[in-house]
Amino acid sequence: MKFLVTKDLQHSTLLGNLMAGVSVALFFYLSLDVVLHAYVIGSDMESISNTLYGNVEEFIEPILIDSLLLQVHIDLFMSLFSIMIIASIYIRLYSDKSVTKWLVHTLFILGLLAPLFLMVAYFTSIGFVYAWLTSFILGHLLGMGLSLLIVKKLLFK
Could you tell me which residues come within 8 angstroms of residue 42 by beta carbon, excluding any fewer than 6 positions away? Predict the structure, then answer.
């Protein structure tokens, strides 16, 4: 509990190792989430378009709305947990840096916009697919980068 008050990890190496382990696990979760979305939705614009809108010439049906809603719900739920954990550890370790606020706010905004852009893309046009893809990839890269910065600070002082 002393870390929660003083932000000092010198007295508890176990807590530092535990936070590093959680950050490594979240790093792998974020990278495997990209792989999962590439498998479920698609890995290039043609396959994403075929998944969301279907393709009459190739007899491909679009994704069902209940499947998409389930995916968006899972994305929102899991991004909430992963972003909160990464942000709370990062803020504790890097609260003296001026860029911390911008990085955390950007992480939250990208994490919330990605599932919303996916829903809007399903009902509107391909332009929102580009917005979803950009926010999804940038949000995951930022989360993975913050996880690596946490591990660097905790293990490689």
Answer: 48, 49, 50, 51
